[in-house]
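Hi, here's the filled form for the chain we discussed.

Project: internal
Contact: R.S.
Residues: 119
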Amino acid sequence: MMCLPCCCMILHCPQAMPSAFRRRYPSTFIIIDATELHVETPSSLSLQSKLFSKYKDNCTVKGLVGITPNGMFTFLSQLYTGSISDRKLVIECGLLTLLESVPSGKNVMADRGFEIQDL
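And the returned structure, exactly as it came back:
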């Protein structure tokens, strides 16, 4: 599957960050998280196993979202099968390619369940 961002990354603008956030996380420019949407259980057992999310205990599709510290969406991935791990989702969706153009010293904030520090 191929992923297309909904819009390009926005340059880091500390003045737009909420002041409390800016004090604690001054170098954070994007916050990412995965989201899952329930889908109807398909009759195909093969497709059921691909769509099944252990986290939601149901058939889902999963996407990655990125927002700025002040809440503006800057990245939306396409939807993947619910069985995909958060790590694989980050790798597959194209976000890493976009992050290559970000100046060094800027940070991505993610839930501690994301095992992506080495990417």
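Let me know if anything looks off before we file it.
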